[in-house]
């Protein structure tokens, strides 16, 4: 597997396969939304688009980062979302980095969105689809966010571990990657209450490795970029 790691601003072509990483917090939140029963997540281009979608579909759940905001139903916090009943609901998500990263590569042949909570399933799907060239979009801090870069590198190492003839090779040790994320600027800002719309448990929830057994696949549906959970086939596990 050939990999490259780029920031959102460096996206200049249409990758064949893109993995868009936002650990804190967009794709941890998205995974929790599915765990709470959401049917799909529409990734909105702008706050105005998110508001317009909500106005057109009052039953949809509009979610944005930052503080609670009129016109929106939820904030970008996994801890605040984990008790919300989202069964059968469509969520509209707009965040500063994560959703922007996915929209930048929406034309790619395969778009996966990821954080540590879905790292294993994401790597498994990359392996199962036989992905050769994979572009990792490191969404935070112009591609330098340590929590996103660590997660991207972990998924790449995990996906590559089953590559080639030596399929019995051990996968990477997650501990060092998780430590880098725990020591990141984003983690510190969340812990110190710098980021609004947060809960004290957010960092811990963002660092839960493989909390969920599904990957997050984004595709185009009726002109919208839509995220859905996809479980790798049961037979796809490495020997
Ligand atoms: O909600 C978050 O943690 C961030 C907000 S910001 O980038 O720190 O302003 O959004 P995300 O897109 O989930 O990184
Ligand atoms: Mg982020």
TrEMBL record:
Transmembrane parts of this sequence: none
Cofactor(s) named in the record: Mg(2+)
Gene3D superfamilies xrefs: ComB-like
Enzyme Commission number(s) of this protein: 3.1.3.71
Keywords carried by this UniProt record: Hydrolase, Magnesium
Catalytic reaction list: (2R)-O-phospho-3-sulfolactate + H2O = (2R)-3-sulfolactate + phosphate
Family of the protein in this entry: Belongs to the ComB family.
Protein name: Probable 2-phosphosulfolactate phosphatase
Native source species: Kitasatospora terrestris
């Amino acid at each position: 597997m050939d990999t490259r790691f780029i920031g959102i601003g460096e996206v200049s072509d249409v990758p064949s396969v893109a993995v868009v990483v936002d650990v804190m917090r967009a794709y941890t939140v998205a995974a929790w939304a599915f765990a709470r029963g959401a049917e799909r997540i529409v990734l909105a281009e702008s706050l105005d688009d998110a508001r317009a979608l909500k106005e057109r579909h009052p039953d949809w759940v509009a979610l944005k980062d930052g503080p609670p905001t009129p016109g929106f139903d939820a904030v970008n916090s996994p801890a605040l979302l984990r008790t919300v009943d989202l069964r059968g609901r469509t969520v509209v998500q707009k965040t500063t980095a994560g959703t922007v990263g996915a929209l930048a590569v929406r034309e790619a042949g395969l778009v996966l969105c990821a954080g540590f909570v879905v790292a294993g399933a994401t790597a498994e799907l990359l392996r199962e689809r036989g992905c050769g060239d994979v572009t990792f979009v490191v969404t935070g801090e112009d591609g330098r966010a340590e929590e996103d870069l660590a997660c991207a590198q972990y998924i790449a190492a995990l996906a590559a571990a089953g590559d080639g003839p030596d399929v019995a090779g051990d996968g990477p040790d997650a501990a060092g990657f998780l430590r880098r994320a725990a020591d990141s600027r984003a983690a510190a800002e969340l812990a110190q209450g710098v980021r609004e719309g947060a809960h004290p448990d957010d960092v811990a929830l963002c660092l839960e490795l493989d909390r969920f057994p599904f990957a997050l696949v984004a595709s185009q549906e009726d002109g919208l970029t839509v995220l859905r959970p996809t479980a790798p086939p049961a037979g796809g596990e490495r020997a």
